[in-house]
Structures are given as C-alpha cells and as structure tokens.
C-alpha cells in the first residue's frame, strides 16, 4: 500500500489509529486456550471488532516468535486473514530488524514479500546498507526507529554529536539513502514535544507514534506537533485496547475502546 492510499483510508474512516497485536498467551481470556490456535482466534476477534475504527494493525513479532512454530503459524494466519477480509487495512510487522546487507535482504523478503506486510520496523544503528534492502519493494515501507518512548532512549538517541542530537543525524542521513521516499519513522508519544523539530527535518513522511494510552502519551500533543495537512501520523495503541477486558466479551470492549480513540482522532482531523 502506498502512503497516498493510506492517507485516503485515514480521511475515509476519520481515523489514524493503529492497533498493536502484541498477543501474550498469558493475558488472553482463558477459554480461548482450548482452541486449536488461541493466538489467532484472539487476533481474529480483536480485528473483527476494531477494524471499523482503525486503519492499521501492528503485530509485534516477538510475541509470535516466543511461541515457536505455533506462534509463527498464528502470525501467518493473522496476516492472511487481514489480506482476505480487510485488504484496505495497512499492516506493520513490528520486527525492529537491521543487519548487514545480505541478512537484511532476507528479513525484508520474509516480511514484505513472503508474508506480504505493507511495512516493517527497522533499527538504523548499522547504517544505510542495513536499511536499504527494506526499501527495494514498491508500495512497501520501512519504518525507521528515530526517537523511541522507552526510558533508555536517552542513553543514545538524544546524545549530542558535534552539537546535534543523534536522532536528528539519523533522520537527516536517512534522507540520503536510496528509495528514502519509502521511509516512515517511529517517534514515541511520550516524546511529543520533539515532533515540532522532527517535522522540520521530515515534513511529509509518515510517523508511527507508539505510547498513547498505557505509556502515558497524549493524543492532542502528538497532533499539535506532528500532524501535517495530509495527517502523516499513525498512532498506535496496543494494551489499552486488546487487554481492556479478560471476559468473554473482550472483543466488544476492545471495539468500544478503539471507537473512543477514533472519535478523538476524528475531532483532531476536523481541525485541518
């Protein structure tokens, strides 16, 4: 999916919500554990209940890899279900990959070709030859970690080198890479005040913003500093939605939580 098609979906649904599918087998309703594939059944229920209110889903790959072959099969079934039932939805493999060129090429093939995700999150620490293989696929994107919402972000990302923060050097350097128009970026919602300066460097690229909800980020701050005339934002919420309830109607409650966020986003969009 191209960024233009994603933007069309955002205005159509009046939402820029991304739902994170970070499925912890120990936190899903216990009655699902008797199913042949409890992870997929949980995802399917969440997707069916929330798809009207969001434009993207983001499975965190670690939660699937932790369950071995069965977890990977659940991931495959989830992405295939999205492709078949909701092809208009944007998909993100939250894998945070990044390695030497030939290894990155295999990671890119896995997520962007074999599984058919629209995008994959990528760590930039090893530089352009670790990222460019993810940018070789037409209508696919790499989402580069720029400024994250975790406590350790300050260990490196905001350290100054020659008078400039490292995350700004990452942003500026990445713009020189081949097919850099296929880049999106991760900026945590708890770092919303940084978005104004970030937008001066990347005025048009989409930004994926985790940390709204459970991590304490505020939607209005993200929109104030990060929204463009074409929106340019995907705001992710995971635990606040998918673990809103452990009861048998967990999906219905998740849908209600997603709708609340969608309504807030619709209000922000009306200000454009």
Provide an overview of this structure.
The chain has helices at 3-13, 38-50, 61-65, 68-85, 101-114, 128-131, 153-156, 166-174, 195-201, 219-226, 239-242, 250-269; strands at residues 17-21, 56-59, 90-97, 119-122, 141-147, 160-161, 164-165, 183-187, 207-209, 233-237. It has an eight-stranded parallel barrel with strand order 1-2-3-4-5-8-9-10, surrounded by six helices. It is α/β, with parallel strands linked by helices and 272 residues long. It has a single domain, classed as Aldolase class I (TIM Barrel, Alpha-Beta Barrel), CATH 3.20.20.70. The longest helix is centred in the last third of the chain and has 20 residues, at 250-269. α2 (38-50) runs parallel beside α4 and α2 (38-50) packs across α12. The model has no long low-confidence stretch (mean pLDDT 94). It is built from twelve helices and ten strands. β3 (90-97), α5 (101-114) and β4 form a beta-alpha-beta unit. The radius of gyration is 18 Å and the shape is globular.
